[in-house]
Amino acid sequence: MPKTGMLVKISLAVVAAATIATVAVSAAGAARQSTSLSGAGSTFVQPLINAWTQLPSQSQSPFTKAKHITVTYGGGGSGAGVSDIIAKTVAFGASDAPLTSYATTCKTCVQTPWALSGTAMIYHISGVTKTLNMSGPVLAKIYLGTIKYWDDKAIKAINKGVSIPHTAITTVHRDSSSGTTYNFTDFLSHVSSTWKNKYGATTLIGTWPGNNVQAHGSNGVAAAVANTNGAIGYVDLWYGITAHLKYMSIENQHGRFVQPTLSSIAQASKLDTTPKADGTLSIVNPPNKTKYFGAYPISTYTYVDVQKHSGSKATPLKTFLLWAVTSGQSHAAANYFVPLPSGVVSWDKTHIKQIVS
Fold first, then answer.
1. Phi and psi angles of residue 38, each rounded to the nearest 5 degrees, phi first
2. What DSSP state is assigned to residue 356?
3. Is the CB of residue 224 less than 8 Å from the CB of residue 172?
């Protein structure tokens, strides 16, 4: 029969073992807890985020069993994304316009370019089956309301041989603060001094000129164009293609009329592959140089904005974002995005490390 001292030692050993086991189970339980990251904003990037968060196999994403990260996203427009990240109601906001373009910016945010695509000019004109060409100055006059009919001589001059009916033009635009509006109006500001002086590059125009209608999100613009004879609108490339709408060939500075394709957007991206300190890049309307010969002039990067001090979300946010700008780019082309240039990826990887708890 063991002595009393031995019983004490055995009891203490059992208690210690039980304590260690309890700690181990608690730690394992903590490791199994998932972190939920909510995001909001840009409808431009939403198809790509949907692809990232709806992968059939968890092993293909940062949301693996080892990481336990769940990402949800709601696309309400870039302005909403910026407002939400400023208010800290989401873990990340997405915007196609840089933070500096908003009246109320986020001085405590880290802004990172994480996707690349273009803005397509879609149209619906009954009886016109050929793809229309469009120049920047003519497009500006259409949205300024000074060109009112599709058979205007300026439109016919760049579409020789195309039969265009005398149909009234209806311009379709976004109804709320939008990064796509910023990309579009940035282009118009490059090609029209009248537009630049009157409206400039902006995420929101209070009152649009001419015969116009407004719609919510790129999908709303696509639907409005599809349902309105004589309509023209600007949408992110994915929405134009998936809505089966025609999109115009836009004249670049080489005088070439270019379709928005992955290769033409990739050529435009060469204009700027080194983000500024705040993460911004500009690739609108590349100059008349050989390397931009086939560049699509209404191309843009789109950004993810997070609070630099993200508390307990900091580590999972960095995991998610680092995956998005590296392995996640393998899903870009299938969703009509161009994989980020290597220089931008390198910059992003360093920049994302600024996010802390």
1. -100, 140
2. B
3. yes
H/E stretch holding 66 reads none
- Share in percent of the chain as helix, strand, coil (round to 5): 40, 20, 40
Q: Name the pLDDT band for 60 (thresholds 50, 70, 90).
A: low
Instruction: Give the helix/strand (H/E) hosting 190.
Output: helix 179-191
- Which tens digit of pLDDT belongs to each residue from 313-341? 999 999 999 999 999 999 999 999 999 99
- Max Cα distance, the chain (Å): 111
DSSP code, position 263: H
92: how many CB neighbours lie within 10 A of its CB? Answer: 30
149-189 residue pLDDT tens: 999 999 999 999 999 999 999 999 999 999 999 999 999 99
> For the whole model, what pTM was predicted?
0.88
Strands 212-215 and 92-95: what pairing?
unpaired
Encoded amino acid at 45, one letter:
V
**Residue 40 amino acid letter:** A
- Listed in sequence order, the residues at least 6 apart from 121 whose beta carbon sits closer than 8 Å to its beta carbon are 134, 139, 232, 233, 234, 247, 248, 250, 298
195, 210 contact by CB (below 8 A): no
> Across the chain, where does the E strand assignment appear?
35-41, 69-74, 92-95, 109-124, 133-134, 170-174, 212-215, 231-236, 246-247, 249-251, 257-258, 299-307
